[in-house]
């Protein structure tokens, strides 16, 4: 099993999306047998003492919850993460609407697949979430926090979506969120769209997650696999269990589907376990052999 660093890009703050808001994810990964260290950025400013040396500390995976507004990674932090992937480490990133988590732009190809607000885009024609006017594009409205959204796939589902607990043999539902961000595989040969969602406001399709597999490091060796999620709300406690509470700045009314039917959330957790297995460096090597 893997040694996983579950890390946010902000300092500890009980009224924000700090790592305490992802306790159920940490518990799920531990229940699957992984060694999980869950932490926030160091609040003293400057380079984070763990992220800036993540390639030296024996971790197999980094699950990076990019919940900052742009300053979540220093150059040293980002360089260490790039070295970590170059040496085979697996990385999952999760951001959110507009520019939330845009520190990911420092992460090479992972920054490219995460697309953030672009002033050249006419937000008036692209905003899906009409209920929160302070949040601009990208903000795909997949449903209320506490509800489910259907997972759309083209062709055979990726192995990350496999489950033995649904009739189709794949994960069919993700937790929903009123304003998801944008991830894209356009023009990147080693990037693949894993799954798509559909806006409940406009009907637009958007990508829920993109996987990176087969990218080569500068030395010609395969880099670690990566998964880029359109929103960290796929994994937040509040989106799995409304009773866990929410930061005070969240004002959208929640849904009740997950509380009423937790079985589909249990199946989604198969996806979480699949991702952790797939990102493990040994899994990549076994497939390559």
Outline the secondary-structure elements.
Elements: E1 3-11, H1 23-31, E2 35-41, E3 61-65, H2 75-86, E4 90-94, H3 109-113, E5 114-115, H4 123-126, E6 148-150, E7 173-175, E8 182-183, E9 191-198, E10 205-212, E11 226-229, H5 237-240, H6 257-260, H7 263-279, H8 281-288
Parallel strand pairs: 1-2, 1-3, 3-4, 4-11
Antiparallel strand pairs: 5-8, 6-7, 9-10, 10-11
Structure description:
By secondary structure, the chain is α/β, with parallel strands linked by helices. It has a single domain (3-288), classed as 3-Layer(aba) Sandwich (Rossmann fold). It contains 8 helices and 11 strands. The protein has helices at 23-31, 75-86, 109-113, 123-126, 237-240, 257-260, 263-279, 281-288, and strands at 3-11, 35-41, 61-65, 90-94, 114-115, 148-150, 173-175, 182-183, 191-198, 205-212, 226-229. The strands form 3 sheets. A 7-stranded mixed beta sheet has the order 2-1-3-4-11-10-9, with helices on both faces. It has a two-stranded antiparallel sheet with strand order 5-8. Helix 1 links the parallel strand 1 (3-11) and strand 2. The longest helix has 17 residues, at 263-279. It is globular and about 45 Å long. Residues 285-289 have low confidence and may be disordered.
